[in-house]
TrEMBL record:
Family according to the record: Belongs to the folylpolyglutamate synthase family.
Protein name per the record: Mur ligase central domain-containing protein
Entry keyword set: ATP-binding, Ligase, Magnesium, Metal-binding, Nucleotide-binding
Family matches, as InterPro entries: Folylpolyglutamate_synth (IPR001645), Folylpolyglutamate_synth_CS (IPR018109), Mur-like_cat_sf (IPR036565), Mur_ligase_C_dom_sf (IPR036615), Mur_ligase_cen (IPR013221)
GO biological process terms on file: embryo development ending in seed dormancy; folic acid-containing compound biosynthetic process
Record Gene3D superfamilies: Mur ligase, C-terminal domain (3.90.190.20), Mur-like, catalytic domain (3.40.1190.10)
GO cellular component: cytoplasm; mitochondrial matrix
Matches recorded under PANTHER family: DIHYDROFOLATE SYNTHETASE-RELATED (PTHR11136:SF0), FOLYLPOLYGLUTAMATE SYNTHASE-RELATED (PTHR11136)
A Pfam family annotated for this UniProt entry: Mur_ligase_M
Domain of life, source organism: Eukaryota
Mur ligase central domain boundaries: 103-348
GO MF annotation list: ATP binding; dihydrofolate synthase activity; metal ion binding; tetrahydrofolylpolyglutamate synthase activity
Length: 550
C-alpha cells in the first residue's frame, strides 16, 4: 500500500477510499453518515438551551477570537474585574453565598478540580464545580449536587429566563464588553447559590488575578490551588514565565491556605511562596520532599486501563498533614495525573484541617472514580466500532503545550511501551507547535504523523493550517535527526530505517483516522509488528470532534 505525503496526498486518499468501498467496509457512505449523525446529535435537552447558547454566542468569546496581549495581567492591559463585580452586584452577589476552592495553573486545573470534587462528593457533600472548556456540551462546565452530572438544560434555562433582563441591562451598561466567559461564570455562581451547595470548586479561565472567577472574596475562599506553571498564553499573561506566575498567584487570598502542585523551577516556586508570605497564607506543597507518589503498574478492568499507584503525603511545614494510600487505582493515567491526584489530596487535607469531615476512605474513593473526557482516554470497543474502525486502539488526549505533550509521551510509555504509534494532530494557531512536536518525538518516534484541521470553539479562525503544522513537525524532526518519508514504499524499501517516520496530510479528521488505522494494519501485516495505537491529540477540540461523532 502506498501512502503519499503532504504533497499529493489527496490522490492517495481517493485511492484508499475506493479500496475501502471495494472491501465493503469503512466507506465514504459512512463518512457522510457521520456528518448526518453529528448534525442530528442535538438532543431535546440541548435544544432547550438554544436561546441561552445563542445569547452567549452574541457576546465576545476569547476562546474563538484569542486573548488580547496582556489581558490576564494585573495591569492597565488586563481584563476589567470591575465589569464582573458590577454584574455580580446586580445579581445579588451570589458568589458570597458559598465556600470555594479556587484553582489556577497552566495544566492540571480540570483534573485537579475533578479529583477534589469527587473526594467531596464521596464524603456526601453537595458540590458545585465550574471548569472549562467543554467537550460535548456547555453543560459539562457546571456540575451540581452529590452526583457530579452536568447541570440540566432545564435548570440553566430556568435561571437564564429569570435573569435575562439583568444580563441585558449589564451588556448595555458595559457597552458590549461583557464576555461569553463572564456571563457563563455569573450563571454558574448563581446556580451554586440557588442549589445551596456546601462548597464550590472553581477553575480559573485565564491566569488568575484578572480572571472573571477572581471576584470571590478572601473570606469565602477555603483553599487556593496553583497546579503548574508553564508557557501557555504567554503574550496574554505578560510575556514570560515569571509574569505568568505573578498572574496566577493573584488567586492567593490573605490568610487562606494555598496548595502548590508543581514541581516548579526554583525561582518560580520562590515567586509563589513570596506572594503567599505577603498574604500571610500557609503553603502546602504536593512536591515537598516528604511526599512520595509511585506508579506500580497498569491493570485492566473490563477493558478500562487503570494505573495502580501509591500516594504518601507527610507535610510538616506550615501545616501538619498526613495521608497514606496504597494500590490506588486511577483511571486518569500518567505521572502528571498522579501529581494532580496528590495535589487534590493536599487540598482535601487542608479542608479537613479546617474542620470539614473528609475521611481517608472518601479521598481514595473520590480519586478512583474520577475520569474525564479527552484526558488519557482510551476508547471502548463499542466506541471504536461506532467510528467504523473495529479492532483499532484509539487514545484521546487534549494535550496542546510542550509540558502536556511530554506528559502524554510519558504516559504512552507506561501504558503502551511496545506499540507502534500513529499521531493524528490538530492544533490552535496560537500554540507552540514545534515545541509540542519535539516533546512527543523526543520520547518515542511514531510510525506516522497525520495532520488535520478542526474547528476551535466552533470556528476555524484559530485552527492552525496544515502548512503551519507541517513546518513545525519538519523542524522538530530535523532538530532530532529524524528522517521524514512521504512514501510508505520508500520507508519499507530502505531497510526499514528505524529512525524515519511518515508525515502526512490526513485530510479530514475521519479520513485521518482511517488512514492511520490502515497504516497500522499495513505495518502489522508486512512486519509482524505489535498492534499499534492511534493517538488523537493537539487540542481538546480535536478530541471533542471525535467524541461528538460517536
Amino acid at each position: 500500500m502506498k501512502f503519499s505525503g503532504i504533497v499529493g496526498n489527496h490522490r492517495y486518499l481517493h485511492r484508499l477510499h475506493k479500496s475501502l468501498i471495494a472491501a465493503g467496509n469503512r466507506t465514504l457512505v459512512n463518512d457522510i453518515g457521520f456528518k448526518h449523525k453529528f448534525s442530528g446529535l442535538i438532543s431535546e435537552e440541548e435544544s432547550e438551551l438554544k436561546e441561552f447558547n445563542d445569547y452567549l454566542d452574541n457576546l465576545k468569546n476569547h476562546e474563538k477570537s484569542g486573548v488580547p496581549k496582556g489581558a490576564g495581567t494585573d495591569s492597565d492591559d488586563g481584563f476589567d474585574l470591575g465589569r464582573m463585580k458590577r454584574l455580580m452586584q446586580s445579581l445579588g452577589n451570589p458568589q458570597s453565598k458559598f465556600k470555594a476552592v479556587h484553582i489556577a495553573g497552566t495544566k492540571g486545573k480540570g483534573s485537579t478540580a475533578a479529583f477534589l470534587s469527587n473526594i467531596l462528593r464521596a464524603q456526601g457533600y453537595s458540590v458545585g464545580c465550574y471548569t472549562s472548556p467543554h467537550i460535548k456540551t456547555i453543560r459539562e462546565r457546571i456540575t451540581l449536587g452529590r452526583l457530579g452530572d452536568p447541570v440540566s438544560a432545564k435548570t440553566v434555562n430556568s435561571l437564564f429566563q429569570r435573569i435575562k433582563l439583568v444580563l441585558d441591562q449589564a451588556v448595555q451598561l458595559e457597552k458590549g464588553h461583557l464576555s461569553h466567559f463572564e456571563v457563563l461564570t455569573a450563571v454558574a455562581f448563581n446556580l451554586f447559590a440557588e442549589e445551596n451547595v456546601d462548597i464550590a470548586v472553581i477553575e480559573a479561565g485565564l491566569g488568575g488575578a484578572r480572571d472573571a472567577t477572581n471576584i470571590i472574596s478572601g473570606s469565602d475562599v477555603a483553599v487556593s490551588i496553583i497546579t503548574t506553571i508553564g508557557e501557555e498564553h504567554v503574550a496574554a499573561l505578560g510575556g514570560s514565565l515569571e509574569t505568568i506566575t505573578v498572574a496566577k498567584s493573584g488567586i492567593i487570598k490573605h490568610g487562606r491556605p494555598v496548595v502548590l502542585g508543581g514541581p516548579y523551577l526554583p525561582h518560580i516556586e520562590l515567586i509563589l511562596r513570596n506572594k503567599a508570605s505577603s498574604c500571610c497564607s500557609p503553603v502546602i506543597s504536593a512536591s515537598d520532599p516528604g511526599n512520595t507518589s509511585v506508579i506500580k503498574g497498569i491493570t485492566n478492568v473490563s477493558g478500562i486501563p487503570f494505573q495502580v499507584s501509591d500516594i504518601i503525603l507527610h507535610i510538616n511545614r506550615d501545616l501538619q498533614l498526613c495521608f497514606e494510600a496504597y494500590d490506588v487505582k486511577l483511571r486518569l493515567l500518567g505521572w502528571h495525573q498522579l501529581q494532580n491526584a496528590a495535589t487534590a489530596t493536599c487540598a482535601a487535607l487542608c479542608l479537613r484541617d479546617q474542620g470539614w469531615r473528609i475521611s481517608d476512605g472518601s479521598i481514595r474513593s473520590g480519586l478512583e472514580i474520577t475520569h474525564l473526557l479527552g484526558r488519557s482516554q482510551f476508547l471502548t470497543s463499542e466506541e471504536i466500532e461506532a467510528l467504523g474502525l473495529p479492532g483499532a486502539t484509539i487514545l484521546l488526549d487534549g494535550a496542546h503545550t510542550k509540558e502536556s505533550a511530554k506528559a502524554l509521551a510519558d504516559m504512552i510509555q507506561i501504558t503502551s511501551p511496545e506499540a507502534a504509534l500513529v499521531f493524528v494532530v490538530a492544533m490552535a494557531s496560537d500554540k507552540d507547535h514545534q515545541a509540542f512536536a519535539t516533546e512527543l518525538l523526543a520520547v518515542r518516534r511514531p510510525v506516522a504523523v497525520l495532520l488535520t484541521e478542526v474547528s476551535i470553539a466552533g470556528d476555524r479562525y484559530r485552527s492552525a493550517s496544515l502548512s503551519l503544522l507541517r513546518d513545525a513537525w519538519m523542524e522538530a524532526c530535523n532538530d532530532l535527526g529524524i528522517k521524514i518519508y512521504e512514501e510508505e514504499e520508500d520507508r519499507l524499501k530502505k531497510h526499514n530505517d528505524g529512525n524515519a517516520m511518515l508525515l502526512l496530510n490526513g485530510g479530514s479528521l475521519m479520513e485521518s483516522l482511517r488512514v492511520g488505522d490502515e497504516i497500522i494494519q499495513s505495518r502489522s501485516r508486512d512486519t509482524a509488528a505489535a498492534a499499534g495505537v492511534l493517538v488523537v491529540t493537539g487540542s481538546l477540540h480535536i478530541v471533542s470532534s471525535v467524541l461528538c461523532s460517536l
